[in-house]
């Protein structure tokens, strides 16, 4: 089966829909990430936007805050995704989650993924919160 032509009108429409969703939540950092992939894996950059945001994130059953909580929990549990976790912590704040909700998500992750994953996630959150002047976080 041939790969889809990322320049076809259908694929470009998916990409534009995804870019609109992504731009509404990410605070402006996404274009740099996509541009960074453009010279080595333009199809990957396209699919992140078209599939990840145009098809998946734009589904109406969940609101952005719910999607972000799920994403934070998954990335924390997976481990090894700290750069993506940092981006999604920022995005979570952009869509209205509080630092307390984010911390609580990582505390909840402790029971399912263990101390190292929860500590790694909290460490990344602390970095983002410090950059935004959101420390200390009260429970």
Descriptive notes:
By secondary structure, the chain is an all-alpha fold. It has two domains: 9-57, no CATH class; 64-131, AhpD-like, CATH 1.20.1290.10. It is 74% helix and 0% strand. The chain contains seven helices and no strands. The chain has helices at residues 9-26, 30-38, 42-57, 64-78, 82-94, 99-113, 115-131. Helix 1 (9-26) packs across helix 3, helix 4 (64-78) packs antiparallel against helix 5 (82-94) and helix 6 (99-113) runs antiparallel to helix 7 (115-131). It is elongated. The termini are far apart. InterPro entries: 4CMD/NDH-1_regulator, AhpD-like, CMD-like. Residues 42-126 form the Carboxymuconolactone decarboxylase-like domain. This is 4-carboxymuconolactone decarboxylase.
> What is the CATH topology of the largest domain?
AhpD-like
Tally of DSSP helical segments: 7
First-residue to last-residue Cα separation: 52 Å
| Shape descriptor | elongated
- The CATH homologous superfamily of the largest domain is termed AhpD-like
- CATH class category label of the largest domain: Mainly Alpha
Helicity level: over 70%
């Amino acid at each position: 089966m041939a790969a889809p032509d990322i320049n076809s009108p259908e694929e470009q429409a998916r990409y534009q829909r995804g870019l609109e969703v992504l731009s509404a939540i990410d605070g402006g950092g996404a274009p740099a990430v996509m541009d960074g992939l453009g010279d080595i894996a333009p199809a990957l950059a396209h699919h992140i936007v078209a599939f990840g945001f145009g098809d998946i994130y734009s589904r109406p059953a969940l609101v952005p805050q719910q999607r972000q909580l799920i994403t934070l929990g998954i990335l924390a549990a997976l481990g090894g995704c700290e750069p993506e976790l940092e981006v999604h912590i920022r995005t979570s704040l952009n869509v209205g989650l509080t630092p307390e909700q984010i911390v609580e998500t990582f505390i909840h992750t402790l029971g399912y993924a263990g101390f190292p994953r929860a500590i790694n996630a909290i460490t990344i959150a602390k970095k983002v919160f410090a950059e935004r002047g959101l420390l200390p976080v009260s429970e």
